[in-house]
Please model this.
Amino acid sequence: MDYILIIILVLALVSVAGIASVFLLGGKSPLAQHNTVAILGLCDSGKTSLYTYLQYGKLVATQTSMVENEGPFKLESNKGLEVPLNLVDVPGHEKLRFKYSEFLPITKAVLFVIDSTTVHQQIRPIAEYLYDILTHSATVKRTIPVLILCNKHDMLMALEAKAIQTTLETEINKLRSTQSASLDQTGDDAAAEVKFLGYENEEFKFEHVPNRIEFLETSLVDDEMRVALRGEIAEFVLCGK
Ligand SMILES: Nc1nc2c(ncn2[C@@H]2O[C@H](COP(=O)(O)OP(=O)(O)OP(=O)(O)O)[C@@H](O)[C@H]2O)c(=O)[nH]1
Ligand SMILES: [Mg+2]
Model:
């Protein structure tokens, strides 16, 4: 009889905890809160092409996105397990990209897509967007990993990933002094979360950031690179599982 009472009590406690978590977390379990893979980057870099490939296994003709694409998808772990995740593609237009900030708190990993053929022309906005992501309070607090996909490597003018990395480091270095100065002046609470990116008194290097940051040359048009990409993304996102 005592056993039955204990079982009833345990079941009641479990249901109360479940209901409380639904109210406190807006219907999402803590695990579900951090299962989003966020595809971010400037306009025309190939985010929606990557989204449709990961989601449906095929490429479709795309147009400049006006709203985000979002939906469940699966990645295969190195143990052969299908891991359910949520995929989101945030438009790159500068008036629409602010939405990234809503997704970072539920993000497990960022796929930051760069058009490798236009890096020199676009280095400033690319560096600014990446800087904003890396200094966002959610990215800092949970050291969200960032995979930088140097896309369009099927094209002759594509810059090598190593060159993109050093060009970005130089640009973030310039940006860092002006951005941290302007943050100091605002004195608001949001800015208080933002730490100095990298080491003070040292030239900026991605390896100085505690987040896992990797660069990968890729292409969604080249068959071989595209097929390899899913596995490389799975390895990066599910690393440690
Ligand atoms: N050559 C080449 N073209 C690509 C590659 N990936 C995407 N594209 C093309 O680049 C263009 C832009 O791709 P999208 O996926 O729409 O770009 P996006 O990042 O979603 O752009 P926004 O929605 O404006 O933010 C399309 O014409 C794609 O077909 C690639 O690896 N190589
Ligand atoms: Mg798009």
Q: What stands out?
A: The mean pLDDT is 87. The pocket of guanosine-5'-triphosphate (ligand 1) is lined by residues 41, 43-49, 62, 64-65, 91-93, 151-152, 154-155, 219-221 (CB under 6 Å). The radius of gyration is 20 Å.
